[in-house]
Amino acid sequence: MESKREMKFDALVVGGGIAGLQTALDMADQGFKVAIVEKDASIGGKMIRLSKVFPTLDCASCITTPKMAAAAHHENITIFTYCNLNSLEREGDVITASLTQQPRYVDPVKCIGCRQCEYGCPVYVPDEEQGGLNARKAIYIPFSNAIPQLAVLDVENCSLCGKCAKVCPTDAVDFFQQPEDFVIRADTAVLATGFRLTPADQKKQYGEGKIENVITSLQMERILAPHGPYQRVLRPSDGKEPDSVAYVQCAGSRDKSLGIPYCSRVCCMYAIKQAMLLSGSLPIADIVIYYMDIRAFGKGYEQFYQNAKAMGIEFVKAKVASITQGEDQTVALRYENQEEGGVETREHDLVVLSLGMVPDWNPAGICEVATDDDAFIKSVMPKMAPALTNMEGVFAAGVATGPKDIVDSIVEAGSAAMEASGYLVEKRG
Ligand SMILES: Cc1cc2nc3c(=O)[nH]c(=O)nc-3n(C[C@H](O)[C@H](O)[C@H](O)COP(=O)(O)OP(=O)(O)OC[C@H]3O[C@@H](n4cnc5c(N)ncnc54)[C@H](O)[C@@H]3O)c2cc1C
Ligand code: SF4
Ligand code: SF4
């Protein structure tokens, strides 16, 4: 039997979002050899998919791309993308991760990222990177500033016509590529596995994801981004520029019936940010945020909220009871107005669900790291060493441990890097 490829590093970072990248950079700058393992085809996590960031309104990709490039070019960092983590175990003094490199059906050594395959491919499928709002090809580079710049063939949708292989100048397309199992051994590991949005279709009262002009907050991030699906703000059903846009807060959080009783912390702020960006793109549109409470918890956040009010964004204190299809492709919101009393119905051209955060990864069956009741990774000493988990030598950072914004994710990543480095130094005497 062929033996698995094995590699040794000082530290393994699971997840290549902003928290994982920051942890890896902080450790690598101290001279430790770090492996980043990412399940997606590119590093960057959610932040590279955002438009601008609150409260400064800086361009998200202008901050994330240099960090991605710094990690990719760092002599002490090795990045493994498109990899599945099968198990993470402590074996004596060492942490052993068993991984599978998923086939891209493209030779990573030969591919030069020229996109000729993408241009030649005749198959169009919804582009998940753009929230499914436009199309990509069956062979594609995930997005323009993806790292690595390697094509991936989507085998589920490929018609095996062979056109990509014919036009590829380096003969990189390989229809027979197989998954490859390999092992990474490290002295410490940091879990930075981040979050997913709560499902958009989980609430019957909110149309179960079937109303076309009801979109998610991440879809709106893409619509507002410079390389977005439409290059301007349009509603999906008919490409009309919306005259009124509504935000439904706590659409997936603070709801015991969904099993998500907690506040996701960032939804108020990202809704306010998007509303401000929209009012720039659509100066005469009505922009309304339906909220239960506004949680502007960070430095400069309250001022950001007050600025939004001063810009004319309408805040309605209300619990939205139902979302239904309105007249003329509009969306009807029925809500209880908590300030003026009474139940009201109002129609909007486009409605954004401010969905919450749930963990993107569940350690059950993969490693013995414990989770809290909310399924995020448990910090065993939250007040003294927040990155510490119950598993010796294993730390956690970013939204993997609970909902938080970018600033807090980066701070926690720095803390995880310090704790993991301290652990290495102590262990090695
Ligand atoms: C719509 C929206 C707008 C936002 N806007 C802002 C904003 O303006 N300002 C702000 O401060 N915050 C904002 N946030 C919050 C921000 O996105 C997060 O704070 C930040 O992305 C957290 O980074 P992270 O690295 O912890 O997680 P992620 O970005 O989720 O990265 C985690 C990475 O780990 C990978 N991964 C997961 N499981 C595995 C596994 N088993 N193996 C390998 N890899 C794995 C994932 O693929 C991903 O790449 C917003 C959030 C949303 C939803
Ligand atoms: S697979 Fe070939 S055609 Fe496609 S990006 Fe790579 S080198 Fe270019
Ligand atoms: S073989 Fe598949 S990926 Fe290649 S061009 Fe044809 S449909 Fe596209």
How would you sum up this structure, described in words?
With 429 residues, this protein is an alpha/beta fold. It has 2 domains: 5-102 and 179-194 and 360-428, FAD/NAD(P)-binding domain; 199-356, FAD/NAD(P)-binding domain (3-Layer(bba) Sandwich), CATH 3.50.50.60. Helices cover 21% and strands 26% of the residues. The chain has helices spanning 18-29, 60-73, 116-120, 163-167, 217-224, 267-281, 301-310, 406-428, and strands spanning 5-14, 34-37, 52-53, 58-59, 77-80, 83-91, 94-101, 124-126, 135-137, 139-140, 152-153, 180-191, 195-197, 214-216, 244-248, 286-291, 314-325, 331-337, 343-348, 350-353, 357-359, 394-396. Strands 1, 2, 5, 6, 7, 12 and 22 form a 7-stranded mixed β-sheet that branches. A 7-stranded mixed β-sheet has the order 14-20-15-16-17-18-19. It has a two-stranded antiparallel sheet with strand order 3-4. β17 and β18 (331-337) form a beta hairpin. The protein is globular. The two termini are 39 Å apart. The mean pLDDT is 96. It binds flavin-adenine dinucleotide and iron/sulfur cluster (2 copies). One iron/sulfur cluster (SF4) binds at residues 120-121, 123, 138-139, 153, 158-164.
